[in-house]
Amino acid sequence: MPIALDNLRVGRKYLLTNMGEIRELEIISRLRGTNFKVKDLNTLEYYTTEELLQWGIGKDYDLDELYR
């Protein structure tokens, strides 16, 4: 079962799977509500959670904390 977006914590790392894409993310800051500024740990780009989920949540959606 995926973690709810409102349970994300700043400074923690998460693995997001959605629509066939797998991303390792670090939460940088909370913007408003369930929107966060995140850093992709593989490409080092910055996104918001709204940008990552703008096309919807797919059947393979999963969000888990990374414990590395």
Question: What would you note in describing this structure?
Answer:
The longest helix is centred in the C-terminal third of the chain and has 4 residues, at 49-52. This protein has a single domain (5-65), classed as SH3 type barrels (Roll), CATH 2.30.30. A hairpin with a 2-residue loop joins strand 2 and strand 3. With 68 residues, the protein is mainly beta. The chain is built from one helix and five strands. Strands 4-3-2-1-5 form a five-stranded antiparallel β-sheet.
What attributes characterize this protein structure?
mainly beta, globular, 68 residues, SH3 type barrels, 46% strand
Overall structural class, as computed from helix and strand content, comes to mainly beta
Judging from the principal axes of the Cα atoms, what is the shape?
globular
Helix content: under 10%
What's the total helix number? Answer: 1
User: How would you characterize the largest beta sheet?
Assistant: 5 strands, antiparallel
